[in-house]
Write a structure and sequence with these properties.
The complex is a heterodimer of chains A (245) and B (415). Chain A is α/β, with parallel strands linked by helices and 245 residues long. In chain A, 35% of the residues lie in helices and 27% in strands. Chain B has two domains: 2-52 and 278-413, no CATH class; 80-264, no CATH class. The chains are: A alpha/beta (245), B alpha+beta (415).
Chain lengths: 245, 415
């Protein structure tokens, strides 16, 4: 379970202080399927990095499965990322030169886990790439690369998968496939949270959280809807029936 | 984890083959130079020991003082001040406890004639203890004994070179040669041949014949000893061991001073001092050569650091990805340290091979008319190898820790 309370994040960019997050409260229960939306610069990626333990808040509390994460050391956060989370990036972020199988093995290598090859192979099969284990990133399509990245996120059997615009660099067919894959994983009990620009993609989720100027302005589950701007109304069309079960 | 880091490092190095090879070359040249130059320096030290070894170990020499005629020195050894009795005094039991053996020596040059063949050689008159003092072995026949000295026996033990010159393959033992020296002519029977020792020029230890000292003093040089004093060329003294050389010098000096009534008309030469000084000089040379080579090793190390910094910058994104999926600081540190150490150790290994090769190549080559001798000590290989590993660690640690401290978010954003 994710519990964010009063999370703020301030960056120093030269002389200017950038308040990326200005007091975010957000709770995500186990097994949820959540889309985080918002215009560029709204702070949604910062929020995502925070949830993914890649970044630490300036203030506020972040409890992941009841453990306070804010203020943890670099290495402690790394261990949490490695054991509890799977992170999927817009630009795939695969390592150059490694085969698909080796990419997926990387998190297990750092865990010093046994049966790495078999587990990596199983994860690749789960994302439908069981036959392309020896291909390098350059030999795979964008959709396939993102599947490898998802397999890498899955291989440690995390309870939470986070994705920062996972379909942002994909064509519509691959997008559909990747979203279907996320739905499948969520159906298997994994909490899935992702950032997206695209309302059609967000429409597949059960809950949408809208960020603007570093604050949660819309949360379909909690019934929050603070001053939705015109842009929000035109670009965001939630499916009411799914959003409020 | 070390095994994994090693695999990752090898992979990264393989991916940049040219860069890896050039970095390695820096270390290779450094280590190779250290080994080759140390080998030359240590070869010089070894040849000093070798050059002096035929003179015997723990030996001190007593020479006559210099003769002064109207304030003009004729040089050390020219004054007729050293006599047979001096040697007897030193050899007297209990007189000089630090002295193991004493050999009075009177030497001259003369012609040795055998039928048609003849050779000009050094004639050394001494006593049987000479073999002990100078560490000479008789390989054929035997050395003359004290009775022969007292009886002024006309017998000789000849050096290996003289035996070759006069007798070629014939057995010289029992043959009689005619020796012309100091205007005298004596028939001498050969009773032994000395072992081959080598040496160069007038120091050639194989070009001499050794006879009882009485034969030289009373027959060959009799005319020149008109005063009746039995003058010696030198007295060779062997100390009990290398630790008692200084004590021996002191005791001998005291006995001589007393015998000569305070006159400083003799010199005591500690050969070991001279050998040590020469060895010291060549050791200094070795250190100097090693230091120069060491500089190139440091330059090679800076090359490693340079490349590692570039490599870390280039792979910032990779570091970000690895950290994002679970690489701790020490994992990243290990990965880059491993790269640096693998490059430096591999370079070091090839450097050892090329250094030994260069030493082999230099062996026997002429430099300023002197043959170079090289000695590759195992210690210098271990030293060079250890230093190259240390260089890998030292010059790798900064770039690697820079990589390890990277913030994953910033690293992932790096283009």
């Amino acid at each position: 379970m994710i519990e964010l309370t009063g999370i703020t994040k301030t960056y120093q960019m030269g002389d200017i202080e950038v308040h990326a997050l200005q007091g975010v409260d957000l709770t995500i229960e186990d097994g949820e399927f959540v889309a985080i939306m918002g215009p560029s610069g709204s702070g949604k990626s910062t929020l995502m990095n925070m949830i993914g333990c890649l970044d630490v808040p300036t203030s506020g509390s972040y409890q992941l499965d009841g453990i306070e994460v804010a203020g943890m050391s670099d290495d402690a956060l790394t261990i949490i990322r490695n054991r509890k989370l799977g992170f999927v990036f817009q630009s795939f972020n695969l390592l150059p030169r490694l085969s698909a199988l080796e990419q997926v093995e990387v998190p297990l290598v750092y865990q010093q886990a046994p049966n790495r090859k078999a587990r990596a192979k199983a994860a690749l099969t789960r994302v439908g790439l069981g036959e392309r284990t020896h291909h390098k990133p350059t030999e795979l399509s964008g959709g396939q690369q993102q599947r490898v990245a998802i397999a890498r996120a899955l291989v440690t059997e995390p309870s939470l998968i986070l994705a920062d615009e996972p379909t942002g660099a994909l064509d519509s067919r691959s997008t559909t496939e990747i979203i279907a894959l996320f739905e499948e994983l969520n159906a298997a009990g994994i909490t899935v949270v992702f950032v997206t620009h695209e309302p059609e993609v967000a429409a597949h989720t059960k809950r949408q959280v809208h960020i603007r100027d570093g604050r949660v302005v819309v949360d379909t589950l909690r019934g929050i809807n603070i001053q939705p701007s015109e842009e929000d109304q035109t670009t965001w069309r939630p499916r009411r029936d799914e959003a409020t079960p | 984890m070390i095994g994994e880091s090693f695999k990752i490092a090898l992979r990264a190095l393989w991916a940049n083959k040219l860069r890896t090879c050039l970095t390695m070359l820096g270390i290779l040249i450094g280590v190779g130079a250290v080994i080759a130059l140390l080998a030359i320096g240590q070869g010089a030290t070894a040849s000093v020991s070798e050059r002096f070894s035929f003179l015997g170990t723990n030996v001190i020499y007593i020479r006559p003082g210099s003769q002064n005629t109207g304030g003009i020195s004729a040089g050390g050894g020219s004054a007729p001040t050293l006599v047979y009795d001096d040697a007897e005094l030193i050899a007297e039991p209990g007189a000089a406890p630090a002295v193991a053996a004493v050999a009075p020596v009177r030497q001259t040059f003369g012609q040795v004639v055998l039928q048609g063949a003849n050779t000009l050689t050094r004639i050394v008159g001494t006593t049987p203890s000479w073999t002990d003092v100078r560490s000479f072995r008789v390989v054929r026949g035997e050395f003359f004994d004290n009775e022969a000295v007292e009886a002024v026996a006309a017998v000789a033990v000849i050096g290996d070179g003289v035996a070759r010159n006069l007798f070629a393959d014939e057995d010289p033992i029992g043959q009689t040669v005619r020796v012309n020296a100091g205007g005298q002519s004596v028939n001498i029977r050969i009773i032994g041949v000395l072992e081959k020792k080598g040496g160069t020029g007038f120091q050639n230890q194989d070009d001499q014949i050794v006879v009882p000292i009485s034969l030289v003093l009373r027959k060959l040089q009799a005319a020149r000893n008109a005063t009746g004093a039995q003058q010696l060329s030198e007295i060779d003294v062997k100390a009990v061991d290398d630790k008692s050389i200084d004590a021996a010098v002191e005791q001998v000096t005291q006995i001589m001073t007393q015998a000569h009534k305070g006159a400083q008309d003799f010199q005591v030469v500690n050969l070991q001092d001279q050998i040590d000084a020469q060895k010291e000089a060549s050791k200094t040379l070795t250190i100097l050569l090693g230091a120069i080579a060491g500089i190139s090793l440091v330059v090679g190390g800076i090359g490693i650091m340079n490349i590692m910094i570039v490599s870390v910058t280039e792979r910032t994104r990779e570091i970000g990805i690895r950290k994002a999926v679970g690489a701790r600081r020490k994992d990243i540190l290990m990965q880059f340290m491993m790269e640096a150490v693998v490059v430096s150790l591999l370079g070091g290994l090839l450097g050892v091979v090329s250094g030994v090769g260069m030493s082999e190549f230099a062996e026997g080559k002429q430099l300023n008319g002197q043959a170079i001798t090289t000695v590759v000590e195992p210690s210098s290989i271990i030293l060079a190898f250890t230093i190259s590993a240390a260089i890998g660690l030292f010059f790798g640690i900064y770039p690697a820790s820079r990589a390890a401290r990277l913030n994953p978010i910033e690293a992932l954003r790096y283009e």
